[in-house]
Amino acid sequence: MKLALIAHDGKKNEMVALAAEFKAFLQGCQLMATGTTGGRLVAELGLSVERLLSGPNGGDLQIGARLAVGEVDAVIFLRDPMTPQPHEPDINALVRACDVHNVPCATNTAGARLMLERWAQLR
Ligand SMILES: O=C(CO)COP(=O)(O)O
Questions:
Q1: Would residue 9 show up in a list of annotated catalytic residues for this protein?
Q2: Mutate to test the pocket of ligand 1, among 6, 11, 15, 32 (most ligand atoms within 8 A of CB)
Q3: Which of 10, 86, 91, 110 registers the highest number of CB atoms within 10 A of its CB?
Q4: Domain limits at 69?
Q5: Could you report the per-residue pLDDT of 79-95, keeping only the tens digit for each?
Q6: Cβ contacts of residue 110 below 8 Å, gap of 6+?
Q7: Model ipTM?
Q8: Is 37 annotated as a binding residue?
Q9: Residue 50: which CATH number?
């Protein structure tokens, strides 16, 4: 399972808590993340994560490009709906790419938990 993990600043603690909860499953995945999110997952959980650029510097677009050529199976993108982001077009492009290529994308922890629980069961 090639999984992309992304969280806005206001959602990074939630992402770390979610990843801690599913750490055993995630250790068996090929993980990629935007720069700062990935840094937290590496530093705080010891996960092996391919870190791309930070979101505002193009990380979302990098993940979208990888997804478009079949290199991402699913995305967990914890967006902060309360905070305007300077790279909103990049965020929309990534979510659109998920829809174009029919790649599952969870944008909150409730959806992410459903996805992760199911995949962990299937493993
Ligand atoms: O901005 C982001 C996603 O749009 C996340 O980027 P960082 O993980 O680098 O903070």
A1: no
A2: 6
A3: 91
A4: 2-122
A5: 999 999 999 999 999 99
A6: none
A7: 0.98
A8: yes
A9: 3.40.50.1380
